[in-house]
Each structure stands twice: as structure tokens, then as C-alpha cells.
Amino acid sequence: MPRPTEIKLHQKSRVLELHFDDGYECHLSCEYLRVNSPSAEVQGHGPGQEVLQVGKQDVGITALTPSGNYALKIHFDDGHDSGLFTWDYLYTLGRHYEENWQRYLDKLESAGMRRKA
After folding, report:
1. What is the pTM of this model?
2. Which residue ranges form the domains of the chain, and what is each CATH number?
């Protein structure tokens, strides 16, 4: 799996920019990362136990902490900082952005919820 060669956090636009060693680059919004956190708080402890995240449109990132040579711990300004975003997971989030985002929007709509709190 490709590894990042460059990671830039754009605070104003709330975007994490990633460049990988295979030439792929992506720009992932803080909201997208927050609602797709790999933490048990978001993903649950098994299939069907996911917790729909709402009101995260304005979430930002306060810090990025490397975890070994394989992941980032992302500290969000809503206090969420559990779950490690591995390089593989970040790469996959970038590659599948459109379908993941649409799936999230569909789940919000089905639940009668909105992105903004």
C-alpha cells in the first residue's frame, strides 16, 4: 500500500492534503475524516453497530500526531481523538471519497438529520 510523502493541514479550508509515493494525492475535508473516523465510537464494535455522526459540518482539526510509521492520530476540535487513521485507511478514504460521501449523505437523509448542528 502506498505511503504518504507529504501531509498538509489547511486550517482555514478545513482540508487535509495528502500526497502518496505512488503519485496519488487527495484533499479530505475535516468533516469527511470525522464522520469516517476508524474509532469504535463511530464504527461500533461490529457490523451494523456504526453510529451516524451528525452536526460535524464545521469540525476542524487541532493536531495531527504520527503513530509509528503507519498512522496518524487526528485530534478534532469537537474533542474526538480516538482511532488511528492508518496510511492504508487514508488512501482508501481518498480513493473512495465520492461513494463514501454519498453514502453518508444518504444515511443522514434517511435518518431525517442534517450535516449542520
Report:
1. 0.95
2. 4-110 (3.30.2020.30)
